[in-house]
Structure prediction request, 333 residues.
Amino acid sequence: MYAAFRSVGAYVPERILTNEALEKMVDTSDEWITKRTGIKERHIAAEDEFTSDMGSKAAAQAIERSGISKDEIDLVICATISPDYFNMPSTATIISSKLGLPNVMAFDISAACTGFVYVVSIAKAFIESGMKKNVLVIGAEKLSAITDYTDRATCILFGDGAGAAVISATENREEAIIDVHTGADGTYADLLMTPNGGTGSAHDALDAEAKSSCFMQMKGNETFKVAVRTLTNDVKAILDENNMTSDDIKHFVPHQANYRIIKAVGDALKLKEEQIVLTVHKYGNTSGSSIPIAINDLYESGKLHQGDMMLLDAFGGGLTWGSALIPFAGPKA
Ligand code: ACO
Prediction:
C-alpha cells in the first residue's frame, strides 16, 4: 500500500498587518523588512479566532476536494506550536469535533516550521503500515498569540493561518509519495524558543519582564546560516537518493520564512524562477502552515495539476528540518 497526496485546503484570517502598520509599532521600516525578508504583509487572527477554527476551515476544504467522505477519515494530525491549549486537549481533537469526524485517532505534533513535513511523514508511515487509510494532516498556527509585538527582531516575521491536506491509501505506485526526509538537532534548541510556558518553568508569578519569555525568541542571524546550510544539503540528498535532479521538480515548495533563504537554496539547486513557489510576501512566516498554504495558492491559481512533482523543504525551531518528494495525486476517483 502507498500513500497518495490527494488534496489541499487553506485558510488565512481577514485582518492584514502591513509593514507600514509595523513601522508605527516598533523601530523598523518597510524597506528593511522587504530587503531582509521579502515580507510585505501577514494575516492576523481575531482575538476570538483560535488555531482550531483556522485549522477546521482549511481541513474542511481539503476534505471537500479529496474525493473522500469525511466519515472515511481515520486519523487527524495537527502540526502546531500555537495550539488552543498547551497541554490538553490537542488541537487535532478539537478540529475533529468541529468537523464532526466520527471515527478518528487524533493528536498534535510540535516541530515548528517543519511541522507539515513531519505530519506528511507520519501519515505516510501509518498508511504504508496498513494501520490507517485516510489521513487528514493540518498545519495551523496563531503565532500572533505567542509573538512579542515590542520585539522588532521577531514581530515583523510571523503571521497566522492554516493549511491542510488529505493523504490516502492507494495501490497505484504512480501516485505515491516518493520519499520524506526528517531530521532534528536539539543542541541548537536555544536558537529559537519560547522559554516559558512549558513544564520546564513555573507559569505563575511572572513579572512583566519574565512575561516576554512566554513569547518566541530567535537568534535570527545564526538560525539563517544553519537554515541555508541544512536545507541545501537536505534537498540535494533527497534528490540524489531518489535518482532525481532539480529538472524533475515541477514545483519547489519551501517553508516561507525568508525570501533570501529560499533564493539561496533555489540557487544552490539551480532552480528556475517558475519552479519556485513564493508566498512569503503575502503571509509572512506561518510556521507549520506555510507549506500547505503555499500549495493551496498554487492549486487555486490553476498551476497544480495531477502528477506534478513537488519538492517540499522546511526548517524550524528544535532545530528541525525536512524535505519531501510528492507527486500531486488529485482526488480519489
Ligand atoms: N527593523 C530594523 N532593523 C532591525 C530589525 C527590524 N525589524 N530587526 C533587526 N534589526 C537590526 C538588528 O538590530 C541589527 O542591527 P545592528 O547591525 O545595529 O546590530 C541589524 O538589523 C541586522 O540584524 P540581523 O539579525 O543580523 O539581520 P538578518 O539579516 O540576519 O535578518 C532575519 C534577520 C530576517 C530574522 C533573518 O536572520 C532570518 O530570516 N533568520 C532565519 C529565520 C528562520 O528561518 N527561522 C526558522 C523558522 S521560524 C520557526 O521555526 C517558528
